[in-house]
Amino acid sequence: MNVKNINESRLLNRMEQMAEIGAVNESGVHRLSLTDEDKEARDLVKTWMLEAGLDVDIDKIGNMYGRRKGKTDNAPVAFGSHLDTVGYGGRFDGSLGVMAALEVMETLNDLNFTTNIPLCMVNFTNEEGARFAPDMMGSMVVAAETSVEKAWNATDLKKSNTILKEELERIGYLGNTNPVLFRPAAFVELHIEQGPVLDKEQITIGIVESVQGIYWTRFVITGEANHAGTTPMELRKDAGYVASQIAAYCRQLAGKYSGLRTTAGLIELEPNLINVIAGKATISIDIRCPDKQILEKAEIQLEKFTYECSYGENCEIKIRPLTRVDPVIFEIRVVSSITNSARSLGYTTKKMVSGAGHDAQLMAGVCPAAMIFIPSKNGISHNVKEYSSPDDCIAGTNVLLNTVISLSGRQF
Ligand code: HGY
Ligand code: MN
Ligand code: MN
Would you call 405 exposed, middle or buried from its count of C-beta atoms within 10 A (0-12, 13-18, 19+)? Predict the structure, then answer.
């Protein structure tokens, strides 16, 4: 059954409506996890889920589930993504996957089509990790890669007295269901590529076969604040200098191993004043690679370097791992279902590795999972200029619809 019956204007209008929540700089979105903007987005999706006749459930980490009955009551075919964004991010990252999931449910209602296996759409909590680490937190708890309690106690990366559980409670999304009870038959995520490949090669659908690993580590360097003019160079304990060496070393590491990508995107100095030697520096590093051995090697070399350069500057250093998510290879049955759907609908396709992390990466540890990509214009993402065309959003949703229909008619 190949259907291109989604209601295109309903999908596009809802994406527009969602993009208004936390809208910044014309086309961007600033909707950090568990903020008022995230609450507003969740409330809107919950209303739409209920209007679509779905059974709505919230679990202990705030993941939102919308269930649609099937002819059997087997484990559901699940699909979805996340509504939280990075700061000053784009309107497609995550939102597309949740809006498309909703559209799949609505279209099946319009077609009065009952799938054999039940369906469940999902909005995962805190995929971005931009406010609370680790990222992919909601799916990480479902996959039992971290505990609910540990996730509840996460603190805001910039305001350490803000606790995740209190924010969940404040926005009314501290549910009761135990996340590890969520064991679907399969999971599919539609997402923008966030990289340049599909756009450059003018291909409509990316069939994601694997996702690279992500390691986040926070380094807190303690030196001594002092006068920029009177303190002789040899007497300084300059935490800011150590942090800048770590950022530079991190970049050099990327040059040493093929496929390794390193980023020092979050650096904070205290007191962060032009005429004061930084007494404290916090630098959080993101390293990624499809090869786990390279990730582990790079992590060891980075840590060794941080000790050397801190002690060389008579500073103390504390190291705090924030995220350790390994590379995953997706399950061939789901990958081929996506491939067949995309090709039978006549879309151009390309098999890919995902450079970005996704909830599907964690769900791959729970059930057969895979992803569908659509192009990101000029490969821009995590940026207000992030853009995917309406046609590509529609194409991706059509592929999701057909993949869900084909998976829900199978035995797993
Ligand atoms: O960081 C990532 O790759 C994803 O956007 N959370
Ligand atoms: Mn995302
Ligand atoms: Mn993202």
Answer: buried
In the chain, the number of structural domains is: 2
Please, are residues 213 and 295 in contact by the beta-carbon 8 Å criterion? Answer: yes
User: 70: burial class by Cβ within 10 Å (0-12, 13-18, 19+)?
Assistant: middle
Taking the CA of residue 382 as reference, the ligand 1 atom at the shortest distance is 5
- The CATH number of the domain holding residue 191 is 3.40.630.10
Ligand 1 pocket, residues with Cβ under 6 angstroms: 127-128, 135, 356-357
Q: Give the pLDDT score at 412.
A: 65
Residue 183 and residue 220 in one domain: no
Domain that holds residue 268: 213-325
Quick one: which H or E segment has residue 359? helix 359-363
- Tell if the pTM clears 0.85, that is, is over it: yes
Residues 346 and 250 in one domain: no
What is the Cα–Cα distance from 65 to 75, expressed in whole angstroms? Answer: 14
Distance 241 CA to ligand 2 centre (A): 33
Looking at the fold, whether 22 and 141 belong to one and the same domain comes out as yes
SS3 of 240, please? helix
| Ligand 3 centroid distance, CA of 136 (Å) | 10
Same domain as 170, residue 289: no
Q: Are 65 and 102 in contact (CB under 8 A)?
A: no
**C-alpha span between 242 and 222 (Å, rounded):** 10
Nearest to 27 by CA among 386, 394, 391: 386
- What is the Cα 276 distance to its own chain's centre? 37
Strand pairing class (77-82; 349-354): unpaired
State how far the Cα of 77 lies from the Cα of 377, in Å rounded to an integer: 30
CA-nearest residue, atom 6 of ligand 1: 128
- Closest ligand 1 atom, residue 86 Cα: 5
> What pLDDT, on a 0 to 100 scale, did the predictor assign at position 5?
84
Please tell me the predicted confidence (pLDDT) of residue 409: 85
pLDDT per residue as tens digits for the range 25-45:
989 999 999 999 999 999 999
Residue 26: per-residue pLDDT: 85
Which residues in the chain show pLDDT less than 50? Answer: none
Handedness of CA 125, 128, 134, 136 (dihedral sign): positive
Determine the distance separating the centroid of ligand 2 and the alpha carbon of 110, expressed in angstroms: 28
